[in-house]
């Protein structure tokens, strides 16, 4: 059995980034860059107005100036004759000869003339060419995950396509003869499938597109065959159930038979101890114990790290935060408990963590209200605890 932190270190060591692919920038939100991105154009592209108003030569104000022409965004600007002014709109190119823009609120105007009352400040309300970024400048780095805002920043700088890590192809094997898919008739001894839908929904939310889920019978032969087929088609295989030491728990042996190398089996954590991590070249197996809360923890704390490593994310650490417990429970045993909790946010104080009832690994009901997993170490004291938003 290894510690939770050692398990995380094992992912860093054994999970390699998948190959990269080019993608239109506009479609790359959520993806990880594998090459630096370089601005294709100056930003702004040309000297331009930041306000709706009038372009002048600073030395011509104050005074009453004839209005000669108009500059609009997307059009060409007229030349500014000395002693005159040009109507200009936000984003329009600055007329040659102009050095200042005066907002319309600060002038008196009729159809032909504009009176500039105060002395205008030279250079005001002008966005200078390339003041934000110059063409050829590096604006994003390999390993960065693109947010919608990041996508917009790249598009603004004329970056039409980016090199990103391709998405993993994932197969989910749901074992358990007692497990019945949703909507099918239930015998008295049947268990409605919770883990299959949990894993599938979680992967979809994490951006995985190529995903298949297969129900597998509890025989060694069926598990062997399903795992071999999954490895033929996938970068990542996730299994539910059959990971412990029972008579019908075949996943660890089947992993060996498939030529996977076990990096660890069993993690000092509660729930979800009999978790297996193995790999074969670039392919990864994460075998999760069947109890649904163990699967949930396996996704939030283990699969999340594995996906970050597969994506080549330069910041793969789990985003732990700190909150205050009303009361710290006494733990049984020496494994840390990752407890489902409700974090209450109040802008005036640190988050308050309410541990929810029903922490048994066979119980899922509190996931209907949980928004955090709180890490409770047996030796910890005091009210502060790390938690992961979920
Ligand atoms: N002698 C030992 N027994 C057990 C140990 C141990 O170390 N020694 N570990 C326990 C722990 S901890 C866990 S967790 C479970 C995990 O075992 P498995 O991975 O083999 O899981 P299963 O036995 O297949 O299933 C456990 C439980 O979960 C239900 N289940 C399974 N799949 C689904 C599904 N898709 N949807 C809903 N529920 C599911 C299944 O019916 C069982 O009730 O082993 C302990 N035993
Ligand atoms: O560690 Mo198991 O997941 O508690 O039931």
Automatic annotation (TrEMBL):
One of its GO terms (biological process) is Mo-molybdopterin cofactor biosynthetic process. InterPro entries: MoaB/Mog-like_dom_sf (IPR036425), MoaB/Mog_dom (IPR001453), MoeA-like (IPR038987), MoeA_C_domain_IV (IPR005111), MoeA_C_domain_IV_sf (IPR036688), MoeA_linker/N (IPR005110), MoeA_linker/N_sf (IPR036135). Keywords: Magnesium, Metal-binding, Molybdenum, Molybdenum cofactor biosynthesis, Transferase. Pathway: Cofactor biosynthesis; molybdopterin biosynthesis. It catalyses: adenylyl-molybdopterin + molybdate = Mo-molybdopterin + AMP + H(+). The keyword Ubl conjugation does not apply. It is an enzyme of class 2 (transferase). Transmembrane segments: none annotated. CDD domains: MoeA. Its cofactor is Mg(2+). GO terms for molecular function: metal ion binding; molybdopterin molybdotransferase activity. The keyword Heme does not apply. Residues 171-309 form the MoaB/Mog domain. GO terms for cellular component: cytosol. Its EC number is 2.10.1.1. It comes from the Bacteria. Catalyzes the insertion of molybdate into adenylated molybdopterin with the concomitant release of AMP. Belongs to the MoeA family. This is Molybdopterin molybdenumtransferase.
């Amino acid at each position: 059995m290894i510690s939770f932190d050692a398990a995380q270190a094992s992912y860093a060591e054994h999970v390699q980034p998948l190959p990269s692919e080019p993608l239109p920038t506009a479609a790359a939100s959520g993806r990880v860059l594998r090459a630096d991105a370089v601005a294709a154009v100056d930003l702004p592209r040309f000297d331009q107005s930041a306000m709706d108003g009038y372009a002048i030569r600073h030395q011509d104000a104050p005074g009453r100036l004839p209005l000669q022409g108009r500059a609009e965004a997307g059009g060409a600007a007229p030349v500014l004759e000395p002693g005159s002014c040009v109507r200009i709109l936000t984003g329009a190119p600055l007329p040659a000869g102009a050095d200042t823009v005066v907002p319309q609120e600060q002038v008196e105007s009729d159809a032909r003339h504009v009176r500039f009352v105060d002395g205008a400040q030279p250079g005001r309300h002008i966005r200078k060419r390339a003041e934000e970024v110059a063409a050829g400048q590096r604006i994003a780095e390999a390993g960065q995950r693109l947010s919608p805002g990041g996508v917009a920043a790249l598009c603004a700088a004329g970056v039409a396509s980016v090199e990103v890590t391709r998405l993993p192809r994932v197969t989910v094997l749901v074992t358990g003869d007692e497990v019945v898919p949703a909507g099918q008739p239930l015998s008295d001894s049947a268990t409605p499938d919770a883990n299959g839908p949990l894993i599938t929904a979680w992967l979809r939310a994490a951006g995985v597109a190529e995903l298949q889920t297969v129900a597998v019978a509890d025989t060694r032969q069926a598990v062997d065959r399903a795992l071999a087929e999954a490895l033929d088609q996938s970068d990542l295989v996730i299994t539910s159930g059959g990971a412990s030491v029972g008579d019908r728990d075949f996943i660890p042996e089947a992993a060996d038979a498939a030529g996977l190398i076990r990096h660890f089996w069993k993690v000092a954590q509660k729930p979800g101890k009999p978790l297996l991590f193995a790999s074969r070249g670039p392919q990864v197996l994460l075998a999760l114990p069947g109890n649904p809360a163990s699967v949930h923890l396996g996704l939030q704390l283990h699969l999340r790290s594995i996906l970050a490593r597969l994506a080549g994310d330069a910041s793969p650490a789990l985003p732990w935060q700190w909150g205050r417990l009303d009361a710290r429970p006494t733990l049984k045993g020496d494994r840390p408990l990752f407890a489902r909790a409700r974090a209450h946010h109040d802008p005036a104080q640190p988050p308050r963590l309410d541990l929810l009832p029903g922490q048994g690994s066979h119980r899922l009901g509190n996931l209907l209200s949980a928004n955090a997993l709180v890490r409770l170490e047996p030796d910890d004291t005091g009210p502060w605890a790390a938690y992961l938003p979920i």
